[in-house]
Amino acid sequence: MSEKKLAIIATKGSLDWAYPPFILASTAAALGYQVQVFFTFYGLQLLKKKLDLQVTSLGNTGMPMPVSMPVLMQALPGMQSMMTMMMKRKMKAKGVVGIEELRGLCLEAEVKMIACQMTVDLFDMPPKDFIDGVEYGGAATFFEFAGESDICLFV
Amino acid sequence: MSEKKLAIIATKGSLDWAYPPFILASTAAALGYQVQVFFTFYGLQLLKKKLDLQVTSLGNTGMPMPVSMPVLMQALPGMQSMMTMMMKRKMKAKGVVGIEELRGLCLEAEVKMIACQMTVDLFDMPPKDFIDGVEYGGAATFFEFAGESDICLFV
Amino acid sequence: MSEKKLAIIATKGSLDWAYPPFILASTAAALGYQVQVFFTFYGLQLLKKKLDLQVTSLGNTGMPMPVSMPVLMQALPGMQSMMTMMMKRKMKAKGVVGIEELRGLCLEAEVKMIACQMTVDLFDMPPKDFIDGVEYGGAATFFEFAGESDICLFV
User: In CATH, what number is assigned to the domain containing residue B20?
Assistant: First the structure.
């Protein structure tokens, strides 16, 4: 029987939305799937050597924050960093692996990471800012794999 | 011919984004699909007995609200509740089924609902807050079904 | 060998999130895929003759804006339009095709566009506001195609 394939399009660049692609990719790889992740739009932030991801509670009413805050307060300067810090502390206390470590696990498990060339060009993102092992390609390249995948997710 | 399968990963916890997973799941079940929904991250809010979902217009410029408001006003205290109330009233007037009813339809149609154990642990969510009939599992459990699905969606 | 099929559910109505469905649809069509896009919820904004899409940086911490701004400033009246204008200018300078042009390419490539009847009714959206060539249908109609698709994405 041939290997199962998982294709992910990672488009979000905040701390909370950084987890799903890396958790799904590493879990699938551990289960023997062949995995490719195409990082595009805001998702390219997840490939940076120096990650600076923030939690955004705005637009997520369902978020069980350690401390609840009215919407207006969430928009105050400094509040986003405070929520990010609290979230990181909570995750650490609970033993949740950080994004960098999770990303490393994906690379070790041979998850193929592709940076969207068009977005890289659009925002003049220097390739030296990205981690090693990243490949560059367009949507057409990605369809070669996605078209044969068992699961394809837009995250 | 074997039954078609639909797998959904439900990750959002606001009133507006609560509709897609339940509408897709109930429609597919009515068409004879076998359906599993994996609730994770903010999506776990959708499994609570006592739903307290809010509309978030922030970040949705395309939202045709009953009354249009500038971005800053939307961040004022009380405004989110007001928009939520207006949205609910509009939906009721139009005969749109509420989330609780839609969720009930899914359960009746034997849609399998799985709560992400990792997120439940991370946010210390007490299982007694969730509706009956929910199962608990991790991403690996979900892949067993998703890997054989005809459609798999990350919502 | 039969044609590959791509099914997309387009649910977002902002300028930044208008790109993914149209880029994916037009790329797949160019590669010989048969493509159907189901526009629902805020995604219906993408079918309007007169597009008035805005960038929403709120909730996208990863967005490399031409000028960076604290969260609170982003909520100020006029700021959203300013960011939208800057984004459009940048895209134009970089030779990125506009949404209207991209949408036209999709129609030329025979991408089938379906407007969600339920959402249209809910928000009393007049069909005359939509571009020509749009069909109307429900989730059930869409599943006929999606259930046979090689790739199905919820965008």
Answer: 3.40.1260.10
